[in-house]
Every structure is written in structure tokens, then in C-alpha cells.
Amino acid sequence: MVRTLLALLLLATATTFVAAQTTSDCPLTGFDPSKDYFPKKLVPDTGAGFTITYKRSGKLLKAPTGESYYLQLCHAPDTTAPTDGTPVIKIPVSTVAVANSLAALDGLSTLGVMDKVKFLAPLDDPTIPCGLAAKGNGSMTELTSSVGNDKYGVLFTPNPVPGNPKAVSYGGPTADMTPLQRAQWLYFLASFFNMEDTAADLYYKVQRTYTCRKQQVAKTASPKPLVAVIAQADPGLNANTWTVSSGTYWPTLIADAGGVPLSPVGGGVNVATDQLLKVLNGTHVIVDVTNRTAAATEFRFADWLKAVGATGGIMDANAVAVPAIGNKYVYGVDARRSALGHDDFAATAALRPNYVLQDMMSVLYPPAQGTGYTRRYMRSIAADDGFGAVLDAAQCPNPLPAGPLTAPLAVLPGNADDCLLNAAVTQYLGASSVVPGADAGNSQNGTGGVPIASSSHPLAGTILASIVCVGLVAGFLVFVAPKLARKWRERKNMQYAQQML
Hints:
By secondary structure, the chain is α/β, with parallel strands linked by helices. The chain is built from 14 helices and 18 strands. It has helices at residues 2-13, 102-111, 129-136, 179-183, 185-190, 196-216, 249-256, 273-279, 301-307, 323-326, 344-348, 353-364, 417-420, 460-500; strands spanning 51-54, 58-62, 68-73, 88-91, 96-99, 117-121, 141-142, 154-157, 167-169, 226-234, 238-244, 260-261, 271-272, 285-288, 330-332, 379-380, 424-426, 451-453. Helix 3 (129-136) links the parallel strand 6 (117-121) and strand 7 (141-142). Helix 6 packs parallel to helix 12. The termini are far apart.
């Protein structure tokens, strides 16, 4: 909170405004007014909250907050821009500033344009590895009141900054969007760099692999696990108030992972601590997504029990009615954190729904993915699992990448090729091991299910149909044809005998 207020204060004082970005660094020449400069057009889902309308030499971008921006090719005449007062930003942008949005910083890093990010506020903890690397080598410095907007082409910030024509409201993905709608915010950022092809390719792979994994657990055996996602309103200032399975994001992701999202009466908003365990009655898995940045050490199970009101520990009268507590299926999403305690999930999960989905699948149906997947975000609070490797600059490719990032910062999990390379993923038909009494032992374990051909390959259906046809023909030749031939010979012999008589 303090970091955000300080950054907003300096945004308010950094008001050395200029009317338009200079075009001295424009890489484009030879403007043709009749040419469509954007043959590849991105069309975000309506639920993503923003729109992009393409013109021949510009794009009209509308943010969820209501602001509009006209992104004009840097070599296009000013006469091609709208005259209604819409802020005009020259593209492709060559210098970027970011304030109060690690999600925007991660999106820029994912697109491979971190080398263009020159200013960040606050600078104390960029969190993501390439942000830490940029701070460390001095290529990205603090956005202070002395930095006028003539020093950058665009400023990405969560909220509008009145009077700054280069400030773009990057509200970013919200809890009221589905996992895939949140991932489309890569389109928003890509439009400033004319990287439509890159963004479309990345999202295509994200969507295909997400759908493939969703189908893998679409027909799991009943009973399905009941899952709740909870969060304290503010661990420091308002620790007595919780939300439970609210919004669209988590209920959708839980269902896609083969679970049943808890749907508390009243929508699960503003649940008091003394009522929380009653609301969680019958839940098989609990995921606590509270952002506890101030915690210098791991948040242990004993700490968590106290936080949720189980003053009597695991045998608390209210806790015994929550299977997730007794069976120790309680998780957090803070497996990876920076040295200063900011977690990877808050910064990077929006563009990586595959990781979150597969993390959840690995909890609900461990055999489904075999041993080819390692969780990125989720850690077991109940098992007192410690944090993973601390995020640091060494995890960023050196020098800073000029293209989409590779592991461990990739958008796709390491086993994504199971779905992308014309392979088949076995549909998991068994029960969940987190449900008491469910026959998870007789769960096919990935061997008795139905193969699911990857939907990413356009010839998958044709190939499968061809295999079936070949099998039918072979069966006819081996089993049916000899019998028909024998009957035909017998009939001909009978006819010959009758003729002879």
C-alpha cells in the first residue's frame, strides 16, 4: 500500500507534459495512405474488457476504465489521427515507463521488449527476473518527479493520470474474467509494438494447451472434489475479513481442473473470521491466495490455522467439519517469491493460465500428468512446504531477450508439447485422491483412459479417421472376405452339379 501511494504521488508531480512523441527514432519510412499496415488484427474476447479497432495506419484502443487511445504509426501524418481529443501515442513505442503494475512489466518481459522499459516506479523490487536484471545493469531506473513524459513514449499504470497524454490505463486482468480472457491482455500490450503476430502465436498455444488439459479431466469419476479459494482482505489492516470463491476466474479454473467450486451463500464476500470455517464446511481442498508480502518466512500450517479462526488447531470444533484441514489439503500460491517477499503469482499468473490449471490438476488428480509436471505457483501450507528458489536476476537470459522468453519464465509449462506436437493425451477417468473414500487407486493412472488427440493439429481428425478406415478394411479382408469367397465357390459348385444332372 505504501509503495503504491508513493508511486502515485510522484506520478502526480511528474507533469512535464508534451503534446506528442518525437519521431526521430521512428523505424518506419515511406508512408502510403492507401496501405493497410496491420494485416494481422487481434480480436480480444468481449469479456477481456478492452477493444482494438484497426484503421489503415492506426489503432483505436479502448480500456475497461473508459479511456480511449489512438495508436498512430510514427511515420503517419498527424492528419490521419482523430480530432476529438483522443490521446495519440506514436507506435511502435521505443521507450516505456511502468508504474504500480508488475503485471504490465511481466507482459512486456514476455513479449521480449524489456530492453525498451527504461523507467519503473517503485523500483525497489521489480520481482520478475528480467526486471531485476534490468535494475541491476542500470538499463531501467526509477521513475521520479524529475522524469518528464518527453523521456518515454508510453506510461503503463493501473489508473488514469489526468493531464498526461502518454499515460495508458493498464487495469489489467481482473478476478471477473475467465483464465483465458485474462491471458488475452497480452494483446493489449502487443498493440503498442506492432507485435500482433507474436501475441497471437503465444495466445494460440496457451489456449490450445489449456483446452487440451481441461479435456483431460473432463470425465473424471464422481464424487468430484469440492474446492474453495479464500483470501484475507488485508492481512495487516483487515485480517478479520475474507472472500471465498468470489469472482469468475477461480470458479472457472477449478471447474476446468475437474473440481467443484464452493459457492457460498451471499457470494462469499466479507466473510468474518469467526464464520469462515462454517462457510468452508465439507471442502476437500482449500487454496489461500492471500498476498502476505510482509511475511519474511514461510507461512506455516500452525500460523494459517490461527488466521482462519481454528484456535483449537486441527481438532478445533469447526475445523473437523472441513476435510481439507484434517487431510491437510491446504495450499498457497506463493511457491516462488522475490528476496523482498513479492510473489511470482501476483506478477505473472494472468498470462500463464496453463500453469495455474495444471497446478490445480496436480493437486486434485496427481496421476493425470504423471511425473512430467512440476508446480510453479502452488505450495502445500499444510505440509509446511518452504518457498521455492528465490526469484533473482540470474534467472533472466543475459543479455535481456529480444523475443518471447524461455523457461523458467515461459508462458507454457514444460510438458506443453504433449498437447502441441500432434500427440495424444490420455483422458483421466479416475476419482480424485483428495476425496475421502473415493476409489482413486482404481483410477486408470493414465493407462486406461480414452486418448485425446491434440486439438492443435488441424489434421488430427483426418488422421484418426484414416486409421479407423484402414482398420475396417483390414478386418474385412482378414475375417469376412474368406467366408464370402468360400460361400461363392460352394454356390458355383452347386450350380455346376445341377447343370451336369
